[in-house]
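Dig into what follows:
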Amino acid sequence: MTSTPPFAEPLDLGGLRMRNRFVSAPMERNYCEFDGTVTDRYIDYLARRAAGGAALVFTEASYVRADGKGRIRQMGVDVDERIPGMTRMADALHAHGALVGVELNHGGRTAQGAVSGFVPVAPTAIPCQVVGGEMPEQLENDDIEHIIECFGEAAARCRQAGVDVISLHGGHGYLIHQFLSPAYNKRDDEWADPTLFVNRVIAAVHEHAPGIVLGLRFSAFEAVDGGLDAETTRARIDAIDTDRLDFLDVSAGNYESGQWIIQPGEWERGLLAPYAEQYTRDLDLPIGVAGRISSPDVAARIIESGQADFVSMARTLHADPDFPNRAIDGGRYRPCIACNYCIDSLAGGEIPCSVNPWVGREAEQPTTPAAVSARVAVVGGGPSGLAAARELAAAGHRVDLYDERDALGGDFALASALHEYPEYRRILDWYLDEIADLEVTVHTGVRVDAATLAADVDAIVLATGGRGPALDLPGAESRRIRDVREFLRSGDPAPEAITFFGADREAAAVADDLLLRGTKVVMVGPQDTIAHDVGRRGKIVLLPRLAAAENLTTHLSSIVTRITPDTLVISTDGTEHEVAAPGELLVSQGVEPRADLLAELRALAPRFGVHTVGDASGDGGSIHAALVTAADVAKAVTARAAAREEVPA
């Protein structure tokens, strides 16, 4: 007999009962129409999280007035035209047994005219440089009253649509939070009272949507100069009308301290739970908490210890919507690696997931076995090869996976050993367990050629990765030069000194790791910033650490023109000069497809084709791109097998 895990117990929230303690937290996704109307794609996404076992599924922060819109395809609850879409959404989630929640929000100073079409507004005219720095207009009294009314009317729309739970976004630096914060509320009128606005909003929701379950999400601290610390935040919460609320949900940070809103993988799991504990202890309300809750043991510890009553999970359920069911039944789940690629994609549009190629494409994901089983050879055991093998085997195909190395994982396995990426190993281990259970036949230490695969193969997937471009510069013969990946593969210990030609993602991560081991590092890069190919949130901790590193010397916006045994001649803005460049030279200038086998394998003319994935196809660049390519190739092979659609030689 095994005891029921604490997160599997039901929880009463207002007059409703949650089936367990897992909440799919608000997370912006950019899946709605430009006008804020929910789409079928968005409903499919949310319904998949409901089907995966979450007890309460929230939409993203949804704007109550048009000038509070912060994302191009953010969900809106600002006008009655949004109600039919929300009704379809609520019905879809209810069909899977989940409660439906909407988080009401106004971006305030974080909303920008380029997105909303309006001048942003705020308690005080203080721009938010992180999102563009547009100067907001200070809200007049009448406009404040109107926004309060908008919150109430938005709640009424939600109630009419069948929404069960409303959460007010009072954290992360949005409008309610701006009124609460001494850093952003510098008023000298009645609205200088930091809790007046939120209390009026609470009253408006009760007036317009009586009986609806209502809660508040807030940041336990801001982590910015002059902002709210934990003690001041507690005083603010004590002054809020919590007797009119049904729950609180604890997060942290604001836009100027974004690492606390969405924490990097280097940080401890469940790190915000201690900040929630005092609220759980002192208030007669269910208390939730967010913050790197990415494994069942962390969720169990938080709830069992009394630090919180429920756990709010965004990225974890983004990576695997089945996490709640898997945690409850003890099954395997696809882990979030906390890379923040999802969040860093928001500015450009719809958000993906690095480790789950079906995020945002839920309706396209195969759910039934292949009608015809094929025999498929996958050549290369990096992420794209593992993904292709897993997807093919899950569809019912017979898969042989080959890799010339003695262990699977490719260059991604090398990256997983670096300081910046402590969670990366989790997704590799997941794939290894998956392909073992799916009975993929693995051949390591095998260098494949056409003869290896000549017999009885219906399709071939080439996932051999990429290699660094050759460096052809005067003096290259004078010293040791290796691609950065070759250096990692060697397993060489950290040297006393080393020089990088390149300042991209790979160079930054390896340099960071070596600096922490005591290596003196020189970095020369054509880019004007370090890790230019990484989003802001993905490097929000890395860059300050590199900037503070005493043993790092950088020469950016520079290219190498000549190499000597101890120096480099570099050109910066067209001016050449010589700089010290100790140690060997590591080159990090991207990758070129390693597709030497392609013509040879195509000559075999397997009936369902030869397909390239990941870096071998030129579609690498990120683990997300590699896994999406692999999933799509697996789906294409399944379709061709079912249709007996042979590919001409």
About this structure: The CA atoms of residues 603 and 649 lie 7 Å apart. The longest strand covers residues 56-63. The chain has 21 helices and 27 strands. Residues 141-161 form the longest helix (21 residues).
